[in-house]
Design a protein that fits this description.
elongated, two-stranded parallel sheet, 4 strands
Length: about 425
């Protein structure tokens, strides 16, 4: 009969669920919320089996249940029975992750990539638990303020205040977990990063853009944590100061990786300015001299390393920009001069045009100084070879005879001119 099997299933199913919970507890993946679900499924069981199961469950629940949480030296009791089980799951998960981080997966023989994936999976489960706790807190606050703030009694207002304090503690723990998760992810990615001023970069290496995005997420988490520390009525000056120092360190790193992005594209001026800005933020961190907790210590250590790389990058980009600037200035000057010469009209070149060449910038009488023009190459080989040219030789007798004939002709011309001069002077011709 099917009713018999259904009755047996209703009695055996809670036992199976409890065995599953115990197995998950040994593996470190159990949650007290599963235990609460197991309690709800014991309806309809026999009294004897239910009593045995209740005793086992009460022992397991008592060993893992917590009544308060602590954050930054303050302790707050868990307000409400509904919050005990999910909050206990959060505390147990945090403790388990701290134990796993001390071993780092070396005992299990896992690679670094496998360890990172395991850690990220654990953080994902932890954030899901945090979301469950916050949902219950919001539900409790809605029930307390059912009729609105004006209809709330003194007891309800006090209960709401306790819930808000508890929510602040949970939010602080969650944001710190976000920071730790991002720091671990950044450290693993930075191991495969090669600065832009070094050779050997490959496609598998982490890019500056990827590092910039990771630190941008980290900056948002630190900002939210600083907002929590500066909440009115619940100020935490020490935490706020630590967040301010961490923000300057993150700005140092962001400017560096943005400079690396421009450096890979050979945009030296932009890269130089960003490297210089990174050094300015790093100097602010050093001048503050503030001490930070272990939460932000890896960020400051990374900023100190980045500061040295920024100084190297600034020197390289500055030298390269100066070298390229001198060449580009010469080229631009020559191009500009050529354009001005082409655009300027002179009077001597345009005599046939009826235009006025006075008072117009693009019209001149002549170019002063004259524009440079290309000239044909001179036959310098002929100039240097003139001493080596052999001319034809003329006989000496021929040259002497020609000289005598020239002398006689000159004497006859002189005598004729003197005779004519005497006649003209006798008759007064040619006199003044």
């Amino acid at each position: 009969d099917s009713s018999v099997f259904i009755e047996l299933q209703s009695e055996i199913e809670p036992v199976i669920l409890f065995c599953k919970y115990q197995q998950q507890k040994e593996q470190g993946t159990s949650k007290l919320s599963d235990l609460q679900q197991l309690k709800d499924s014991t309806e309809g069981m026999s009294a004897h089996l239910k009593a045995q199961l209740d005793s086992l469950m009460s022992g397991a629940e008592g060993s893992a249940m917590v009544g308060e949480i602590a954050w930054r030296g303050k302790t707050v009791a868990i307000p409400g029975k509904r919050l005990v089980s999910p909050t206990s799951d959060v505390v147990a998960q945090i403790k388990k992750m701290e134990e796993d981080s001390s071993t780092s997966g070396k005992g299990a023989g896992l690679s670094e990539r496998e360890v990172l994936e395991k850690r990220l999976g654990a953080y994902g489960s932890l954030f899901t638990m945090f979301d469950t706790v916050k949902q219950i807190i919001h539900s409790e606050k809605s029930e307390v303020a059912g009729g609105g703030a004006s209809a709330m009694s003194a007891e309800s207002k006090e209960q709401k205040k306790v819930l808000e304090q508890f929510e602040r503690m949970v939010s602080g723990l969650m944001l710190e977990s976000h920071v730790k998760r991002n720091v671990e992810l950044i450290q693993s990615k930075y191991e495969a990063y090669i600065p832009s001023n070094k050779e050997g970069r490959r496609a598998i290496n982490t890019t500056p853009e990827e590092m910039y995005r990771l630190y941008e997420h980290l900056k948002l988490d630190v900002f939210d944590l600083s907002e929590l520390a500066s909440r009115q009525g619940e100020e935490d000056e020490a935490l706020y100061d630590e967040c301010s120092v961490a923000m300057n360190a993150i700005k140092t790193i962001l400017c560096f990786f943005l400079g690396e992005h421009y450096n890979t594209k050979k945009q030296d001026k932009e890269a130089f300015l960003l490297y210089n800005r990174a050094i300015e933020h790093s100097d602010r961190v050093e001048d503050s001299g503030a001490k930070v907790s272990n939460l932000f210590a890896p960020i400051l250590a990374a900023a100190e390393n980045i500061s040295g790389l920024s100084r190297i990058g600034r020197c390289i980009t500055h030298a390269r920009a100066c070298a390229s600037n001198s060449v580009s200035r010469r080229e631009s000057f020559s191009e500009q001069a050529a354009k001005e010469d082409d655009a300027t009209e002179t009077l001597l070149d345009n005599l046939s045009k009826p235009k006025s060449f006075v008072g117009n910038r693009k019209r001149q009488v002549c170019r002063l100084p004259p524009s440079l023009k290309s000239l044909p190459c001179q036959p310098f080989l002929l100039d240097t070879a003139i001493d080596h040219i052999k001319y034809p030789e003329v006989p000496v007798e021929k040259t002497l005879a020609e000289a005598d004939q020239a002398g006689k002709a000159e004497e006859e011309a002189t005598a004729a001119s003197s005779l004519l001069g005497g006649v003209t002077s006798m008759f007064g011709w040619g006199s003044k």
